[in-house]
Amino acid sequence: MSDAPDTQNEHELIAERKAKLARFREAGIEPFPHEFKGVVPSEEVRENHPGLEPGTETNVTYRVAGRLSGRRGHGKAAFLDVVDRSGKMQVHARADLLGEESFEQLVSLDLGDLVGIDGEAFVTKRGELSLAATGWTLLAKSLRPPPDKHHGLADVETRYRHRELDLIANEEARELFILRSRVISLVRRWYDDRGFLEVETPVLQPIYGGALARPFTTHHNQLDRQFYLRIATELYLKRLIVGGLEKVYELGKDFRNEGISHKHNPEFTMLETYEAYADYSKVMDDVETLVSWLAQETGYAGELKFEAPWPRIPLADAIKEQTGIDILEKRDRDALAQEMVDKGFHHELPDDSWPQLVDELLSKHVEPKLIHPTFITDYPVELSPFAKEHRSKPGLTERFEVFAEGMEFGNAFSELNDPQVQRERFEAQVRLASEGDEETQPFDEAFLQALEHGMPPTGGLGIGIDRLVMLLSGRHGIREVVLFPAMRD
What we know:
By secondary structure, the chain is of the alpha+beta class. Helices cover 35% and strands 24% of the residues. It has helices at residues 7-26, 42-48, 95-98, 100-107, 156-161, 163-169, 171-192, 234-242, 280-297, 315-323, 333-342, 354-366, 419-434, 445-451, 465-473, 478-481; strands at residues 57-74, 77-84, 87-94, 114-123, 129-140, 197-198, 204-205, 217-220, 225-229, 247-255, 267-276, 312-314, 374-377, 399-404, 407-414, 458-464. The strands form 3 sheets. Strands 6-10-11-16-15-14-13-12 form an 8-stranded mixed beta sheet, with helices on both faces.
């Protein structure tokens, strides 16, 4: 069954609803009032009256409000279903309580109309907690028919393009985005409780940085200069560490002008944190603790093993185990490319740089096999321009990425704080860009000058909130957990 009536029928239904709107106004009913004070969630009504026997009357009055989603009955009594964010409340409407005219007007409302109900809580003979309506108020007249109430909103494209209809039709969608909101709230609580400061850094940046990605560009008319939508918050946050704020985090939008897939959306929500005097081992412990706690607090009941400790595997070991290729023995680009050909792992772009080849081995042959939360650690310096050199493994950095369900959802470093080494890393990135690598870090002199004032040892972390919600909700596509994802025309 389709999600909406055909065009001709829809036009007729809209015309009928507009005519009904006019009749309400003629009867002195304002269909779009300014307010409706004193509303309580339907969930609160249920929580206040657990376990009552069928037929019980409470004499306790409530005011609820929501969208009319169902209507049953005939004659002088009817049951109405009113849905708010927290669930559905059944309303019993009777002509002897409301009066004949008010009753007829109430039961004449269209499905999808927003209505406020005053009533007394009671339990029907069938055992359902309900409200016996003593009054009602039309809060907004719906001029369009809602999605089919029995089949919900099944068309995926419509659900993504018109999320409001998805939320109206599908209780599961409402629960998902309530979960997402709760995850973000819990993340804030976790860091606030540990002395971190939530801060805000620029979305429009004169130099994009903090990740290896292509940016969106825009033009500032008054300043007459090109700006970039940020691809990460990293460099500004580390400048705050230089400034002495010591523990900071930001929850906000980043933008990367890249492909769209089940795990990529060009606009996405990131958590980034920086803690002075910490290293990547401390951050690893924190990620285990945070995500395990989030799973517990949100009632996760899936198959992923979020309980700590999580496996910690060096990147080179993980690649060698899955491919037989030792990337640390093949630090030359051509040597690694030839080894990949010899082992049967043909790469797509013949001009890929050495770090691109390593990333290909990771993303294609290791990442898909990491189902339960796993840390991959100790990345080559070529892949990690902001990570501090490993204290005991030359050529590597103190960096980890964390994976689950075959995707990366977090990235962290012992942050590079030597300005001279950072300058050399920037220069290496410029060389890679000149060789055709489009996903490199541009040279940022302002950030270097900040580092030259001195930044303490620091542990930094980025977690993709969208992907984290995917894991905690059991979803497998990023557009499912983003309210309004990017779509083609």
